[in-house]
């Protein structure tokens, strides 16, 4: 009873700590970030608005003011600030010996072919509307000039930007301006402004190398300059041929000055904040009258390909073209001169373009600044949708992402305007190079297909064709085709209405059947495989589409893959586009035509199937990133999936990026694709994983003769282990079960320690002989998780390997797992406090013995030598573990666990600390030998056998549940054990429990037999394992004698 009373404060303390943790946990989960203020955030470092130079501006801008017309003040508002700004424009500088900006091209080896781009952004920061006049308005603004290869430009609203910044591959200069805004009779808006900044200084001693300090990485010398004139001209109307913003940046310093720089020219265009005027009907009629234009390259009628003709074309077009690069199709049909067939349509074809030899490899298109306007009509067939856009071609050596943000107009841009009608589904546009009237010699025909096949995998297709012909009636360029390839995962983002029915048309099933017959194995092993192993297949579900969708999810994977001879792998992706009647992922609006038939009919699998019924039509896509294999990075697939053996037999088509001559001389191409490819994909089984390799195997072979220029050697790939949907669900269920097991084992540990406390209260004679080192090991094991936030009893450490195929389940955010987690922490704290209480009792009992027998201190048990011997033994064991590390590191690297080897000492230390806790009885065994306990029983059997079982339970669990290394936990956290650790290997799961049980048996024997009997049993002739009896501990006053008040000398003891 006294012990229970002593434990009550500890229990209340534990529950108080646990409550605070739970409250903190839930508040952390459900809390919402609180902002300091609501509304517009004003930075203290906002730019200074000033008009103190307005008189100087009027002098420098005299010519602009002289041509200014009277402003219509009702049309001027603060919204004009946004219309006058632009981002990612282009700039160039007149040739001379006074450049304005340096550039550091060092440390750019990661992509040495990428060329730097000159970009400019401008923002109006203030309009002085209260002091406006009839002809001008005061303006403040900021301009940012930059030379960059990979970096985005900072927002001009970020007022912390320094005036000049330079680092490898990026330079930028910020200039603050104040000036005037005027309008003239030439249908222009004009900004004339004076600016100031800190210009980088050139080296005047060497005109050929003015930026010598850049290469030497010195501190940039800066010069204050306030004589910079900016002149920007904007068109008042926004049309097909009136959209270009032009500007000049001029130095007002004289040339001998280091502040002087050659004139800078700026180019951009009006953006989406400005209303577009569809007034170019005459030019549109030139290209599209009569409508629709009969496009030989892609015709919606007679080709078997349906195109989108429904409502909401503008919304769909915006989703399809939003910041997405378009792929340029090679001129595989061209038959002409090399110069003619190598042209990039209406775009400028410089050396970088011609070097592709008509294959246009890595050349991309962007469809930018799309304006779409749907006009009202009495019927859907009479509706006309007007569209305007800018097509930008991107060089192979330009940064693709940054190029997609550019707004400058140059020879690589074509402005376009046209019409779309639902009657034909064709968007016909007139194209003007550089947005100039004399450059309007191109026709653009664009479609959004709703029919897909192995040869048609594009969500958008289009062509540029020539309007003007030369005297010999030969077009100036061959029709240029482009497309946007569809990603299977993005399909549902495009067709969100049941009005459109995208579907897949199978055309290679006969060829896939021939591949199946050629690769089908018939052997005794195959029969066993079919009867024992289970592969991904259709399951019982609410309807057929749901079952197909779940199967498609299992058949889709992304993971590293390796060849037999390749040390480094490539990222391999397998995406299922359609499976049977299912197209894309399962969403009812897009699969509406078959969803109606399956809505009320639950799908149930049959017990037996014929071979034909087990074959499912499938289309997919393989993507390889990293090292190219056989000159392809994407394969379009179509064929059959055999559920019985888990294999796909597929015909593959690849986009051939060869010269136009090779393509023209290859008559067996299908729509420019090489489809003479066999692909076999073998999936691992879902169950019976110990009978098969849990990796997917892929074979890609060409059916062309070896002397064919399009032939490639057979590629055989083997992925890292993959897992299926059911196994991902098992991760969650296993984590929950393991959490509950941890709670139960910790609760059992509390019972064992509590029973020991009650035991020593009634058996005080043997209490001093409990080893404090043993209790210290247990207390250390319980305290470390509370300090380091690691898990108790069971090692939870994220596996060091990282793969693409990592589940996205975040267990830590689940409230259920949080409850289990904090319950475990509470139980660990209770175990720790109970162990400390046990240590306190042992310490006090020894202190009383020292008080009662001050002349016989050597007869009181001491743990000094026990601690020393235990430290020596564990130090030797730790050294042996470190010596064994090199062989283990090799295994880690080969097994893709290289990062664990880099922190090997930390890993080994954590492992060995766990081993010390498993062998917690070792100090007690040593102490029993040294103290010659003579049948004393300091430990209760329930205590040391119970704690031993708790420590060994993770090994038993690992051996039974994870007897086969589970590849599906790569990258996951293990609740109980980490199989990558040596001590949790198969051998460790046997050796450690055997050793721990042996220590428990030794303690049992030591407590049952006296020292003489035990020494005699362990004597072999003259050889004695145990030393002779010592008189050191023969007579030690028992606690019962002290409690009863009778000592050795007859004196009464004090009350406890």
From TrEMBL:
The keyword GTP-binding does not apply. GO terms for cellular component: endomembrane system. The chain crosses the membrane at residues 739-760, 767-787, 819-839, 866-883, 987-1005. Keywords: Membrane, Signal, Transferase, Transmembrane, Transmembrane helix, Ubl conjugation pathway. It is an enzyme of class 2 (transferase). Residues 57-265, 284-474, 521-715 form the DUF2921 domain. Its main location: membrane. It is a multi-pass membrane protein. One of its GO terms (molecular function) is ubiquitin protein ligase activity. Residues 1-24 form the signal peptide. The keyword Cell inner membrane does not apply. It is found in: Endomembrane system. Residues 727-1012 form the SWEET-like domain. InterPro entries: DUF2921 (IPR021319), DUF2921_N (IPR057425). Its EC number is 2.3.2.27. It catalyses: S-ubiquitinyl-[E2 ubiquitin-conjugating enzyme]-L-cysteine + [acceptor protein]-L-lysine = [E2 ubiquitin-conjugating enzyme]-L-cysteine + N(6)-ubiquitinyl-[acceptor protein]-L-lysine. Pathway: Protein modification; protein ubiquitination. This is RING-type E3 ubiquitin transferase. It comes from Arabidopsis lyrata subsp. lyrata (Lyre-leaved rock-cress). The lineage of its organism: Eukaryota, Viridiplantae, Streptophyta, Embryophyta, Tracheophyta.
């Amino acid at each position: 009873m006294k012990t229970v009373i002593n434990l009550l404060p500890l229990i209340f303390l534990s529950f108080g700590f646990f409550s605070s943790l739970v409250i903190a946990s839930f508040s952390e989960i459900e809390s919402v970030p609180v902002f300091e203020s609501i509304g517009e955030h004003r930075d203290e470092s906002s730019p200074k608005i000033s008009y103190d130079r307005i008189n100087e501006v009027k002098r420098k801008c005299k010519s602009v003011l002289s041509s200014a017309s009277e402003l219509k003040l009702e049309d001027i508002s603060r919204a004009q600030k946004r219309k006058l700004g632009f981002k990612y424009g282009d700039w160039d500088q007149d040739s001379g010996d006074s450049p304005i900006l340096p550039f550091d091209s060092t440390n750019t080896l990661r992509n040495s072919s990428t060329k730097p781009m000159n970009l400019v952004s401008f923002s109006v920061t203030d309009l002085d509307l209260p002091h406006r006049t009839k002809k001008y308005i005061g303006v403040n603004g900021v301009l940012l000039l930059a030379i960059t290869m990979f970096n985005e430009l900072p927002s001009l609203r970020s007022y912390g930007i320094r005036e000049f910044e330079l680092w490898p591959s990026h330079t930028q200069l910020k200039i603050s301006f104040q000036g005037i805004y005027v309008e003239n009779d030439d249908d222009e808006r004009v900004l004339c402004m004076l600016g100031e900044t800190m210009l980088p200084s050139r080296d005047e001693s060497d005109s050929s190398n003015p930026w010598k300090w850049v290469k030497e990485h010195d501190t940039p010398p800066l010069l204050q300059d306030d004589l910079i004139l900016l002149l920007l001209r904007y068109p008042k109307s926004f049309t097909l041929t009136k959209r270009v913003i032009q500007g000049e940046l001029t130095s007002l310093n004289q040339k001998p000055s280091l502040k002087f720089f050659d004139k800078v020219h700026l180019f951009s265009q009006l953006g989406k904040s400005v209303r577009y005027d569809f007034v170019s009907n005459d030019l549109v009629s030139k290209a599209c009258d009569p409508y629709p234009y009969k496009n030989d390259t892609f015709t919606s009628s007679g080709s078997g390909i349906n195109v989108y003709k429904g409502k909401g074309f503008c919304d769909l077009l915006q989703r399809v073209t939003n910041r997405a690069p378009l792929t340029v199709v090679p001129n595989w049909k061209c038959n002409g001169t090399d110069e003619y067939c190598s042209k990039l349509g209406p775009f400028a074809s410089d050396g970088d373009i011609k070097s592709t030899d008509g294959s246009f490899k890595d050349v991309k298109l962007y469809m930018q600044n799309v304006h779409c306007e749907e006009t009202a009509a009495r019927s859907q067939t009479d509706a006309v949708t007007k569209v305007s856009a800018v097509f930008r071609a991107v060089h192979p050596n330009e940064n693709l992402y940054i190029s997609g943000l550019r707004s400058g107009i140059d020879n690589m841009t074509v402005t376009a305007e046209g019409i779309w009608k639902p009657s034909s589904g064709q968007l016909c546009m007139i194209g003007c190079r550089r947005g100039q009237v004399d450059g309007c010699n191109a026709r653009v025909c664009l479609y959004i297909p709703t029919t897909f096949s192995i040869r048609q995998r594009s969500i958008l297709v289009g062509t540029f064709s020539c309007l003007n012909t030369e005297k010999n009636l030969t077009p100036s360029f061959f029709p240029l085709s482009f497309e946007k390839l569809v990603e299977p995962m993005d399909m549902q983002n495009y067709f969100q209405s049941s009005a459109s029915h995208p579907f897949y048309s199978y055309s290679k099933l006969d060829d896939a059947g021939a591949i199946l017959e050629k690769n089908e194995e018939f052997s005794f092993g195959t029969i066993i495989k079919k009867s024992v192993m289970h592969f991904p297949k259709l399951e019982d579900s609410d309807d057929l589409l749901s079952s197909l969708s779940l199967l498609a999810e299992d058949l889709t994977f992304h993971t590293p893959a390796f060849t037999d001879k390749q040390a480094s792998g490539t990222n391999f992706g397998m995406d299922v586009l359609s499976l049977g009647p299912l197209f894309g992922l399962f969403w009812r609006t897009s699969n509406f035509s078959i969803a109606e038939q399956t809505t009320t009919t639950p799908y149930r699998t049959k017990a037996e199937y014929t071979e034909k019924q087990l074959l499912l039509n499938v289309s997919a896509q393989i993507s390889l990133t990293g090292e190219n294999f056989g000159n392809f990075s994407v394969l379009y697939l179509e064929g059959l999936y055999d559920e019985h053996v888990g294999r796909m037999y597929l015909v593959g088509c690849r986009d051939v990026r060869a010269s136009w001559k090779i393509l023209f001389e290859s008559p067996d191409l299908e729509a420019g694709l090489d489809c003479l490819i066999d692909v076999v994909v073998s999936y691992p089984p879902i169950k019976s994983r110990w009978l098969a390799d849990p990796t997917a195997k892929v074979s890609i072979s060409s059916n062309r003769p070896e002397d064919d220029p399009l032939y490639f050697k057979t590629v055989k790939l083997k992925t890292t282990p993959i897992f299926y949907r059911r196994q991902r669900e098992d991760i969650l269920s296993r984590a929950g079960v393991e959490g509950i097991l941890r709670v139960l084992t910790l609760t059992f540990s509390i019972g064992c320690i509590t029973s020991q406390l009650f035991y020593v209260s009634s058996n005080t004679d043997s209490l001093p002989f409990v080893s404090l080192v043993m209790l210290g090991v247990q207390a250390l094991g319980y305290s470390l998780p509370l300090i380091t936030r690691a898990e108790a009893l069971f090692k939870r450490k994220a596996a060091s390997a990282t793969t693409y195929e990592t589940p996205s389940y975040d267990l830590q955010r689940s409230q259920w797992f949080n409850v289990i987690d904090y319950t475990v922490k509470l139980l660990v704290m209770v175990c720790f406090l109970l162990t400390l209480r046990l240590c306190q009792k042992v310490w006090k009992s020894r202190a009383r013995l020292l008080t009662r027998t001050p002349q016989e201190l050597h007869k009181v048990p001491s743990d000094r030598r026990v601690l020393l011997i235990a430290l020596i033994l564990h130090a030797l064991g730790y050294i042996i573990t470190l010596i064994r590390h090199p062989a283990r590191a090799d295994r880690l690297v080969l097994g893709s666990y290289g990062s664990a080897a880099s922190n090997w000492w930390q890993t080994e230390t954590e492992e060995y600390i766990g081993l010390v806790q498993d062998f917690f009885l070792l100090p007690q065994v040593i102490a029993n030998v040294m103290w010659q306990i003579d049948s004393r029983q300091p430990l209760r059997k329930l205590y040391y056998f119970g704690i031993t079982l708790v420590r060994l339970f993770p090994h038993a669990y690992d051996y039974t549940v994870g007897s086969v290394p589970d590849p599906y936990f790569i990258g996951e956290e293990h609740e109980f054990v980490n199989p990558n650790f040596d001590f949790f290997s198969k051998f460790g799961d046997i050796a450690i429990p055997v050793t721990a049980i042996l220590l428990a048996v030794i303690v049992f024997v030591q407590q049952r037999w006296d020292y003489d009997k035990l020494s005699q049993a362990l004597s072999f002739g003259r050889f004695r394992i145990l030393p002779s009896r010592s008189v050191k501990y023969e007579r030690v006053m028992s606690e019962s004698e002290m409690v009863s008040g009778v000592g050795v000398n007859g004196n009464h003891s004090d009350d406890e």
